[in-house]
Amino acid sequence: MIDSGLESKQEATQCYTVYLDLCEVRGWWYVQIHYCKKLEMAFISGHPTRHEPREIVLPLQSCQTVSLEMIQTYQQNIKIDDCNTNRLA
User: Where is each tRNA-splicing endonuclease subunit Sen15 domain found (predicted)?
Assistant: First the structure.
């Protein structure tokens, strides 16, 4: 994670662990790690199957509490060209 913008080794490890899970365990296609400068956090995108649309995954810890306001902030700020982030699935 050279020059990724991730603040800590823990964040980088957590993101990479989710990345590997999506690629190796779940068999997702075209998985990529992105960085949102505005939120100072990494996120992952990929296709659950070869023909399904791209989805965004936030590598959050299971113990983290996520408020409705934070979900809205994620939706407003985490963008990639070929993925609609204006709704929750």
Answer: 18-87
- Residue closest to 58 by CA, chosen among 84, 35, 24: 35
User: DSSP letter at 13?
Assistant: H
Q: What angle (nearest 5°) sits at the alpha carbon of residue 50, between those of residues 49 and 53?
A: 75
pLDDT exceeds cutoff 60 at 3: no
Neighbouring-strand partners of residue 42: 35
Specify the DSSP element, H or E, that contains 44.
strand 41-47
For the chain, the maximum distance between any two Cα atoms, rounded to a whole number of angstroms, is 35
Q: Mean pLDDT across the chain, nearest whole number?
A: 85
Q: How far apart are CA 37 and CA 4, in angstroms?
A: 10
- The per-residue pLDDT for 22 is 97
Strand partners, 45: 32, 56
Nearest-5° Cα angle at 52, 63 to 15: 30
